[in-house]
Predict the structure.
Amino acid sequence: MSTPGDRGTDGRRPQRADARTNRERILSVAEEVFGRGGQLASTEEVARLANVGIATVFRHFPTKAALLEAVLVQRFDRLREQAESLFHAADPGAAFFGFFSHLVADAPGKIAIGEALYEAGGGNGGDAARASDGLRRAVGLLLQHAQRDGAVRGDVELPEVYALLVATSRASAPAHLDEEVRDRMLAIVFDGLAPLRNARRQGP
Amino acid sequence: MSTPGDRGTDGRRPQRADARTNRERILSVAEEVFGRGGQLASTEEVARLANVGIATVFRHFPTKAALLEAVLVQRFDRLREQAESLFHAADPGAAFFGFFSHLVADAPGKIAIGEALYEAGGGNGGDAARASDGLRRAVGLLLQHAQRDGAVRGDVELPEVYALLVATSRASAPAHLDEEVRDRMLAIVFDGLAPLRNARRQGP
Amino acid sequence: MSTPGDRGTDGRRPQRADARTNRERILSVAEEVFGRGGQLASTEEVARLANVGIATVFRHFPTKAALLEAVLVQRFDRLREQAESLFHAADPGAAFFGFFSHLVADAPGKIAIGEALYEAGGGNGGDAARASDGLRRAVGLLLQHAQRDGAVRGDVELPEVYALLVATSRASAPAHLDEEVRDRMLAIVFDGLAPLRNARRQGP
Amino acid sequence: MSTPGDRGTDGRRPQRADARTNRERILSVAEEVFGRGGQLASTEEVARLANVGIATVFRHFPTKAALLEAVLVQRFDRLREQAESLFHAADPGAAFFGFFSHLVADAPGKIAIGEALYEAGGGNGGDAARASDGLRRAVGLLLQHAQRDGAVRGDVELPEVYALLVATSRASAPAHLDEEVRDRMLAIVFDGLAPLRNARRQGP
DNA sequence: AATGAATGAGCGTTCATTCAT
DNA sequence: AATGAATGAACGCTCATTCAT
């Protein structure tokens, strides 16, 4: 599977490429496997589906926790990049709410991600926590922009917004939350985040 | 191990009472242990912390799943009773929001409960699912009353409200969500649930 | 079940009677239970079917092995008595072959007996071995009588005959040996035990 | 643990060979351990005597039942091959009786084999049952040949002959059946199988 | 660098036996 | 004498991790 034949044709450094390929395949398989079964999924299953020996997995990721962390970092980074790509969107409100929806809609089947958003929120000091912070900061900027644009009330702050993001994302992770219900749930949250609240509250 | 003499509060005769006491202690320890570690927590740890032999746990609950289910049923039933006690509250809105807050505030450290609210939402056919349904129905009534009283907008329905309840409860389960943040998160949700929304949305 | 009411009416010694009754019921249930499942059957099942607490079983038989031994002793003794009742039969040959057949036909479902005939053959020094020896001796007498009567060749001796008895009995223990096959198997053995063998062998 | 250097007999390279060696050692140890203690013997004991970790046993045989089955298949196959090697023997009678004796003489200490000959006779649908059937068929052919050759009476059929084979084999399994007794027991059976029986019976 | 065999700690569960009533 | 709750050792089996090639 790891195409050992290449080595014969040219002696430059096919191994390095092979290793990188393996690492990536392992990571991507792990994302799916842990997404399905959470931490309960076995490392052997990752190895099997990635078509590598179990020892190869452990060569690339010294412990199961490290593999899980790498999966999370990848996922957080990807989400952060998506958030960052919206920093200069024409409509900051649409950008914020759109990203919120996207993240929540993306959750189904990705148990580990939900768990991670959730655990990493507490910060465990590892790379995942760092990546999680990166995502959090990006969401913070999207929020700020939306607030400045008047699309989100000005008196909410990142901690509670992020907590809501984690909460709704996590709640959506199990496949059995109906899509329509999920949207109606988000509608309520988004309504709570919309401005004019103050106006209404201040009014008689 | 069970040193029947040290039951300080009441000095009634052991034997049958001892067994009941053990059962209750096991249940309560299990609630805490599974609350911390989820299903991953070991039955042995439950036994150790309950100061009973492992076989005693299995005498009372034939399988680990049965123990977990008993924990959940107990918890769901307790919450349902609390909800039911609010059916005839003078202020249905306060009753609804109060119960919502109570359930979420009660969550910290009770991972299994969150998981259960969440999994049982899908219904696995066991006693826990039945108990979960009972809670859901009770929440449904509280919601209806609050809506009739004008404290909650009339266009939201139980599925999304319950999903929000599960989501925020679950998000609050880890101890590291600051209490103030949790309240601000709830404030947003409650705002989203408040009436006048339609009026505002329809207006220019 | 243990008729605890008797105690009230007369104070003499109903407990003794109760105990004896229990002991017998346990023994008889044990014979059936071990007969079905061998030593693998659990002592608890014996207690359950005998309608007594597990501790009662252990009061009467201090260990599981002792219970098993008691079962075997009872069974060996019963068989020995049956053999002895044939000592003065009019037709010693019919008596011998009849008893042989009876024992083998009685085997189905009595795994423990087969195992015991077999293990006890080696003599483990306990009561069961003693009872087994008693049976063996009784079979020996039946054999002698049959030989004197000319119904069994004179050159066979008890050890091999007993071994055959054990072997065929054991082979018949599982229910799945067809009755007809069992009889045809015995016919072969009985033929081998019939006299005139020597004559034939000595002839050219 | 597996100290690949100490394979005294042949110095071929380990790794794959090591695994095969382990597998074989486990199988052979299992044959002995189950031979002594039947299914009651523990897998751990097999591991201990085979000088491998318990997980190694389970790597080679996914369940205890699979290990037991492998032992039986091996044994049945070996016996079948021996039987087949006698198909074209010059003296079919000697072949049949010789194989019968061999099988019975081979039994001592191999309880599990006896149990298996016995249980598998009932057919449990697994590989062992298949292998058992193979052996049975081979014995059937040896019997036919012996009958055609006039060495075994023509009116006996495989079922009862096989039952006798199982019975005597099983009875010989415990080491405490004296060799001479065993032979005398077989002599009786063989006499019962010999021809001229009919003649004698029909004759005066 | 990659393999997969080997490992042992740990898990859920059972069962003969003991203890307290 | 009888009960049944409690016990812990043992079992079958799994899995993250290491070793030898």
Summary: Residues 16-37 of chain B form the longest helix (22 residues). Confidence is low (pLDDT under 50) at residues 1-13, 197-204 of chain B. The domain at 69-196 of chain B is CATH 1.10.357.10 (Tetracycline Repressor; domain 2).
